[in-house]
Amino acid sequence: MGNLAGINSSLALLKAEMKKVWSRPILELAVILIALISVSAIQTLVQIEDQSKSQLAFQLLVGNGVSAIMTRQMQPLIIFCSILMSLSFARDYEQGLMQSMLSLPISRTSLFTMKFLAVILPLTFLSWGFVIFFSILNYYSNLFLVIQFVIFALPIALLALMFYGGLATIVSLVIKRTIPSALTAMLTGFFFWFITTLDTQAIGNTAEYLALTPYKTPLVLLDRTMGVIFPPGSLEISLPIWVFVTLTLIYASIFVLLSFVYFVRRFEVRE
Amino acid sequence: MVKAVNSKTLGEFESLTKRFGTTQALRGLSFKIYEGINGLIGPNGAGKTTSIRLSLGLIKPDTGKAEMFGLNCWKESLEIRRRIGILFEKSAFYDGLSGFDHLNLIAKLKGISKSSIEIKRVLRLVELEGGAQNRKIGGYSAGMRQRLGFAQALLGEPDLIILDEPTSNLDPLGRTKLLNVIKDLRKNGVSFLISSHILPELERVCDNFVLMNNGQKIREGTIEQMLGEKTSKTFVINVQPADLLLKLLKREKYVEALSINGQSLHVTVKDVARFKRHLPLLISQAHASLDEVKVVREDLESVFKSAIEEDSDGKLSGN
């Protein structure tokens, strides 16, 4: 009974947090922006000449398509993650809601988890929803194959967002001001994205290791699971897949754990 | 480990210090919170809100001991928060929810069964029932938000209710009603810790006071003890005729201020004992007949002012 009541109260808190963070016009803006970005990543079907290779070519095309949509989505997702985490943690602190909530008989663990999930879960499902929608729209001739591919996209989207969500959370908890923390989180997020845009012409062979950065690793993992072809000998294909799985999990958890420990053990309401 | 709960003392702060950057918020603060209505008074920056936050585990003391119900305020704050209701000066809510829905959420978080009956009870107490409870909190006035915050603090009948400036956004009628609710709840065994700048209100309801300045306690006690420490030096003497006594009193060096209103003389003296000894002689010399001598009672506000002045003077001379 006690556990059930605990789950009920956590769900009620999650619902209230979602309603607060995703209030108008945040949800509308997020839907529009992610939809537009996803549309721009759609690849048109090319005519497949060789019938004997048609199945393989189609698989490759779907894999590339799903990966391209997700890659493109990352930029608006970084922006929204930064803004929403800042709204959830820093604005609540500024307005006094954090103080009120921490004065209630609810554990800091529950409060942190619900606030974090209230941002991350809708963003993940929004991203995933558009991947499904546009993939099916584009490759409707083989729905089974499309669904197989997009299933991989869900955990990858969640893990990638957890990295930026964790980063934005720790920034919001430390800075405690809505606008400065949103801007700092956004700039830091884009820094990780920017370095992956450097190529071999700019920094030579070092560019290969950019596949191991927090931005690129989950996307490489997605590409590998969907059979996207990389140039022979490149780091993306030469390293075993478990390296990318491990790195993705580390990136996903590093800032989340850091911000969680800080919130539960050290965070104080001072003003 | 849960210790035995003292029947009289609800909270105990001992030698607490807390620094925020370059600001020393608490400097060895020690006081107790008792069953009943406790008033926490002091000027801005005295450390009242910091003490309240400490009691709820919102901040951790640098040194010293902070306990509520025999439990450590930082390590066992969850258990403490189950037994405390709080209204902060800066009330914040889920503005997108209605008053009723917000309280319903808080009731769930507090683990209150039969929450809808309890919510109706507290809404009735703060007079927010009817249409107001179904409106979004974002559209509430400052006074309504204050009352909703009070309702939230009352939810679940906590052992201790902490109110930080509870009447700051209320009109005079609202203040009176809130103070009456506090007094009624007191009769039912609920204890309060109230921090407020409106001292006459506190004087009306509080059983015990803690006066703070610069992160320290400077006085503590019941209203009688607080006022007793400061002997009144102003008297009203009703005599007939008053004119001659007025002339005689003017000559006395221990008289600080003197005024006349009809047959009433208002006298403020430096030396109360000497004045009391001397007065019968003066009345006799003035051939006056005495109706009554009234002591003008000091109020909490004057005690507060002089205590803060004495504390500041002491610090200056100490320096």
Walkthrough of the structure:
The complex is a heterodimer of chains A (271) and B (319). By secondary structure, chain A is mainly α. Chain A has one domain (2-41, 59-266). Helix content of chain A is 77%, strand content 0%. The longest helix of chain A has 42 residues, at 54-95. The mean pLDDT of chain A is 87. Chain B contains 11 helices and 14 strands. Chain B folds into 2 domains: 9-227, 3-Layer(aba) Sandwich (Rossmann fold); 234-295, Alpha-Beta Plaits (2-Layer Sandwich), CATH 3.30.70.100. In chain B, helix 3 packs across helix 4 and helix 4 packs across helix 5 (142-154). Chain B has a 6-stranded mixed beta sheet, with helices on both faces. Chain A binds chain B through residues 5, 8-9, 12-13, 16, 19-20, 23, 92, 95-97, 99-100, 102-107, 268-270, and chain B through 20, 53, 56-60, 78, 81-82, 84, 86, 88, 90-97, 104-106, 108-111, 152.
Name the features.
heterodimer; A: 271 residues; mainly alpha; 11 helices; B: alpha/beta; Rossmann fold; Alpha-Beta Plaits; 6-stranded mixed β-sheet; 4-stranded antiparallel β-sheet; 14 strands; 37% helix; disordered N terminus
Write the topology of this structure:
The complex is a heterodimer of chains A (271) and B (319).
Chain A: H1 2-21, H2 26-40, H3 54-95, H4 97-102, H5 108-138, H6 143-175, H7 178-195, H8 200-203, H9 216-225, H10 235-238, H11 241-266
Helix pairs in contact in A: 1-5, 2-3, 2-5, 3-5, 3-6, 3-7, 5-6, 6-7, 6-9, 6-11, 9-11
Chain B: E1 9-20, E2 23-34, E3 37-41, H1 48-55, E4 63-68, E5 71-72, H2 77-82, E6 84-87, H3 99-109, H4 115-125, H5 142-154, E7 160-164, H6 172-187, E8 191-195, H7 199-205, E9 208-213, E10 216-221, H8 223-228, E11 234-240, H9 243-250, E12 255-261, E13 264-269, H10 272-285, E14 289-295, H11 300-318
Parallel strand pairs in B: 3-8, 3-9, 6-7, 7-8
Antiparallel strand pairs in B: 1-2, 1-4, 4-5, 9-10, 11-13, 11-14, 12-13
Helix pairs in contact in B: 3-4, 4-5
